[in-house]
Design brief:
The protein has 19 helices and 24 strands. The protein is elongated, with a radius of gyration of 29 Å. It folds into four domains: 243 residues, BirA Bifunctional Protein, domain 2, CATH 3.30.930; 107 residues, no CATH class; 99 residues, Elongation Factor Tu (Ef-tu), domain 3; 64 residues, Threonyl-trna Synthetase, Chain A, domain 2 (Threonyl-tRNA Synthetase, Chain A, domain 2, 2-Layer Sandwich), CATH 3.30.980. By secondary structure, the protein is α+β, with helices and mostly antiparallel strands. Strands 1, 2, 5, 6, 7, 8, 9, 10 and 11 form a nine-stranded mixed β-sheet that branches. Helix 9 crosses helix 13. Bound molecules: glycine.
């Protein structure tokens, strides 16, 4: 059976048992602050379980897009190393909301696995919670599983919880013995050692959760008014089992991606092909999360996506892929999964654009970062040390954009460790510097020792809309390492704000010149940040000149964001809103929210409207 047929047969089976088939919820839920990503099929039904919402149907089934990369359910560290964990996967599930309970859940599962899909019973094992005599008894009574194959485990394996809080309950899992299917097969005299034994031979296929509690914030378990069933089966795993494959990556879910990676890189996939696996896995997580409205960024959900993208990009380098390539793989997902998940078809172009621009931006620093990493490694080898220092890991992070987990992964490949505590310390020190900088005004008034006051009077008066070069005075100045920070009485320098980058330029006085590299607002102060050439300034008088061409280009791009915003709204509708923007002298980026791909004709129309306004040369 093809993967698509297996998915269909699951849904058809539960339809025949009175279940309503519902669509997958978004993988990037916007309305549940306890979750970065949807990590289980039951997430969208959480409020029904805890009695806050009435179900429309008491029996439902679906395939749910899940991402497990953070929090209680995090599979990231296994991805690529083994062949059956994924960051993104589909979870097939059936639910009973206060309708059937353990008996039917067990009967349905056994019937589907052994009668419809005809999995060999001698390869199946089930587990129940250590005190769940009822479930253990039902398995033996209702099915023809051999009684010794019903095993008991404790909370770690057989009490399922959504997260730190939320619906939960004892569960019963069905495991499959891949036996000699897998080349990594381990030999166990007694399957009890293999099931739940963290090995590649016995894999968990399906989890039947008997939801009856809510885990409260204070850790207490509150019994729910009704009892529910929540099941989750890893689609990619069951497909591998049914298709008789060693690895999920050998099923037709992944082969089109793996083949494309092999084609692009010219390197065939083999069992050792961790790079192919990681890339194939991560592009799925990226594609589906972007389709559902998430965007790579520097925090929260967005940073998880950035980490995934950067890992995939680095594995691409292992395969000799120098140019952006991940975005090219998204069209394969559109072809192979678009019928089940139409959102990736609707937003296909947007998804590939977001990925491409992320790849381009990481590409700027990736190669230099890899060189630095190689130097760090050879230094360690010389000193026979086995740990990358926290400062080095932080430098890779801060200067070259290497997420800590990427550095850890690369270290692991060399049998090295990373000093994570040292990294955290370096990060905290940087935050502290940023905090101190943020309290700049207070630092000046409260601790004048740190600052040289070269003159007195009002400060930071912005006159940069009228003049771009003026004679003015330094009020206060401070030197830290090789940077100087200074405030002026009047300044033509625009401080970064509203996504518009701060001005650069020159501040010069008797015997010195400061190359201003950035201008930032800190409290009521406009702080010029730059490098000093010459003597440390002792006299206040200076000439301050903004890099005019740069400022004008930036200002033009800033104005264009407003024109673009208006044209987007006029063309696509009033719902379009700004999700972020970046304005620099040579480019602008404008993030918008819109429910589907912007068609090429619409883009042309938008572009036309913006150009029309520009050509009017209106006063701003
Ligand atoms: N909610 C069942 C599972 O995620 O395994």
């Amino acid at each position: 059976m093809k993967a698509s047929e297996i998915r269909r047969s699951f849904l058809d089976f539960f339809k025949s048992k009175g279940h309503t088939i519902v669509p997958s919820a978004s993988v990037a839920p916007l309305d549940d602050p306890t979750l970065l990503f949807t990590n289980a099929g039951m997430n969208q039904f959480k409020n029904i379980f805890i009695g806050l919402e009435e179900p429309k149907n008491r029996r439902v089934a679906d395939t749910q897009k899940c991402i497990r990369v953070s929090g209680k359910h995090n599979d990231l560290e296994d991805v690529g190393f083994d062949t059956f964990h994924h960051t993104f996967f589909e979870m097939l599930g059936n639910w009973s909301f206060g309708d059937y309970y353990k008996k039917e859940a067990i009967e349905f599962a056994w019937e589907l696995l052994t009668e419809v899909w005809k999995l060999p019973k001698e390869r199946l094992f089930v587990t129940v919670f250590r005190t769940d005599d009822e479930a253990a008894g039902l398995w033996i009574e209702l099915t023809d599983i051999a009684p010794e194959r019903v095993m008991r485990f404790d909370e770690k394996d057989n009490f399922w919880e959504m997260g730190a809080t939320g619906p939960c309950g004892p569960c019963s899992e069905i495991h499959f013995d891949t036996g000699d299917l897998t080349s990594q097969a381990q030999v166990f005299d007694d399957p009890v050692e293999g099931v739940n034994g963290e090995n590649a031979r016995f894999i968990e296929l399906w989890n039947l959760v008997f939801i009856k509690y809510n885990r409260e914030k204070n850790g207490a378990l509150t019994p729910l008014k009704e009892k529910h069933v929540d099941t989750g089966m890893g689609f990619e795993r069951v497909v591998a089992v049914i298709q008789n494959k060693n690895s999920n990556y050998d099923t037709d879910i992944f082969t089109p991606l793996i083949d494309a990676i092999a084609r692009l890189s010219g390197i065939a996939y083999s069992e050792n092909g961790m790079a192919h696996r990681v890339i194939a896995d991560h592009v799925r997580a990226l594609t589906f999360s972007i389709a559902d409205g998430a965007i790579p960024s520097n925090e929260g959900r967005g940073y998880v996506m950035r980490r995934l993208l950067r890992r995939a990009a680095r594995f691409g380098r292992n395969l000799g892929l120098q140019e952006p390539f991940i975005y090219k793989l998204t069209s394969i997902l559109v072809e192979t999964m678009g019928d089940v998940f139409p959102e990736i078809v609707e937003r296909a172009q947007y998804i590939s654009q977001v990925i491409k621009s992320e790849e381009e931006s990481f590409n700027h620093t990736l190669d230099r970062g890899l060189d630095v990493f190689a130097k760090i490694i050879s230094k360690l080898e010389e000193s026979a040390s086995t740990e990358i220092s926290g400062e080095d890991a932080f430098r890779l992070y801060d200067t070259f954009g290497f997420p800590l987990d990427l550095t850890e992964l690369m270290a692991k490949e060399k049998n090295l460790k990373v000093d994570v505590a040292g990294f955290d310390k370096a990060m905290e020190q940087q935050r502290e510097r940023a905090r101190r900088a943020g309290k700049f005004a207070i630092a000046i008034t409260q601790d004048p020792e740190e600052w040289d006051a070269l003159s007195a009077g009002h400060h930071s008066h912005f006159i940069g809309y009228e003049s771009l070069a003026i004679d003015t005075e330094i009020r206060r100045i401070r030197q830290e390492k090789d940077m100087v920070y200074l405030t002026l009485s009047e300044t033509p320098f625009y401080a970064e704000s509203g996504g518009q980058t701060g001005d650069r330029g020159i501040i010069e006085g008797l015997g010195f010149q400061i190359d201003v590299m950035d201008t930032q607002k800190m409290g009521s102060h406009i702080v010029h940040i730059g490098r000093l050439a010459g003597e440390f300034p002792r006299k206040a008088k200076v000439k301050a000149s903004v890099d005019v061409a740069r400022r004008l280009s930036t200002a033009r791009n800033h104005t264009t964001t407003h024109l673009l915003h208006k044209a987007l709204r006029d063309t696509l509708g009033r719902h379009v809103s700004q999700a972020g923007s970046l304005v620099e002298p040579d480019r602008l980026r404008f993030d918008v929210t819109h429910f589907q791909k912007i068609e090429p004709e619409q883009l042309e129309e938008i572009e036309g409207k913006v150009n029309e306004q520009i050509q009017k040369n209106l006063p701003v």
